[in-house]
Structure formats: C-alpha cells, structure tokens
Amino acid sequence: MIESALAHGADALEATSDSPRLDAELLLAHVLDCDRQQLRTQTSIALSPQKISDFDALIARRALGEPVAYLMGSWDFWTLTLRVTPAVMVPRPETELLVELALSSLRSKHAPSVLDLGTGSGAVGLAIASERGDATIDLTDASAAALQIAELNRAQLGFSHVHLHLGSWLRAVPGRQYDVMVSNPPYLGAQDRHLETPELGFEPRGALVSGPSGLEDLAHIAHTAPTHLKPMGALYLEHGFEQGAAVRQLLSDAGFSAVTTHRDLAGLERVTSGIKAD
Hints:
This protein is of the alpha/beta class. It is built from ten helices and nine strands. It folds into two domains: about 1-65, Helicase, Ruva Protein, domain 3, CATH 1.10.8; about 85-275, Vaccinia Virus protein VP39 (Rossmann fold, 3-Layer(aba) Sandwich).
C-alpha cells in the first residue's frame, strides 16, 4: 500500500536526508505519475511489484545522496517546472530572490533587455521571461551540455523572446548592452567545507567552484559588466551568505553606485546589486 511504502522509504532516508518523508512522497508520486495530494488521499491503494521495485531503486539512490531533482528529472522553480540533469545545478529556492529583484527593477521599463549569465537550466532567466513577455532575454553558459538543458526548458515553455548563447560570461554576447544583468555564478572556494556535502558531489563542479577563494568569477563579472549595461543598468549577483562584504567591495571598485546587499527569507546575505554609474 502507498502508506507503507512511504513509511519504508522515509525510514530508509532518515540518516541521510533532512526531509525523508518529503523525499519519499516526491519519489513515489514520480513513480506513480501523480501529485503528492493524490498520495495522501489514496493511501490504501496497493502498488504493483514493478512500481515497488522502481520506488525502492530511487530510494536507494537518494540514500547515497543523489538529489531528488536528478532522480525525478525535473524541479519546480518560481512558477515553472524545469527539466534538470546532472549537467546543471538544481535550482534553489533562495535563488528566487534574484528573480524578485530583477522584476522589481524592470517594473518601470518597457520592452527591457535582460541577461542571465551562467544560466544552467535557465531557471532565473526563464522565470523572468514568464513574467515579462515584452522583454528580450539572453541566456549564456560556457557549458554546451547545460545550455542544451536550458534550450529544452525554453522550448517546452514556448518562450520565443528568450535567446541562448554559448560562451564564457560576457564573451558570449559581444557588443550587447542590457537594462538588467543577473547571475548566480560559482562562488565556492576549492577547499570550501560545503563541497563535502553528499548532494554537491552529484552536481557539476564547474557550476560550484570558482578558484581558490570562491570570488574569482564574481570579480570577473563585476569588472566586465559595466561595458555591457545601459546607463542606469542594474547588476544582481548571487553569492555565498558570508561573501556580502567582499562582493560589495568588488562592485564599488568596479564603479557601481547604490551598492546594496539583499537578504533571503532566512535572513542571510544572498544577492548584491549595483547600478551602473554614469
């Protein structure tokens, strides 16, 4: 029955997951091709041996630390359900702050231009695109495999106002200028303790690690962004919760004005922004 399968799955994940019951529900709903609400209302329904076998296999992989998103092949971000694979990072809830800030800064602009640097699955840029059909939105990534996933998501959503570009940071869009630029770049140092987390071992290291300090890519973007921003254009950078002061300094050194760090729902410094000074 569904309830006994869920209980068994949650027990198996107790030692390795922060949310064993939720993980079990998500994986069983995936196997049964239903939603979690249906699981709760049909707890006494018997499962076929094949479904039980499929569920047990996913639970075993999850117990080793593999992210639920990779096991399901998709993940929710903003109001979208996006395809994800080990070629891209799993979109995090805290990254929705980038979307909120970008949309706020675009509120008074008609037909704005937006750039999402290092887009991965396309999560941030596509979320902005879902709210601003009048915008022209460019997504870039240095990984062809990642950009392929972003293109699958773009095509599934039918966003013709979104365009993809392969290349490293701003070299992917030479000569272009934007009203708003957003990025969630790699910001972990090579020896960062968080890299020991089992789940991170399954995610692409190139999307996580940025040199010895973790600030290398943030510094590169901060210093190259001004030439790609329109007058009064805004840059929003996601970073580690302990990097706020360092990123504020990077933006100030690059000539940005109104440099501000924004906190996520947990109260942690998560995104730092600046306005191109003219």
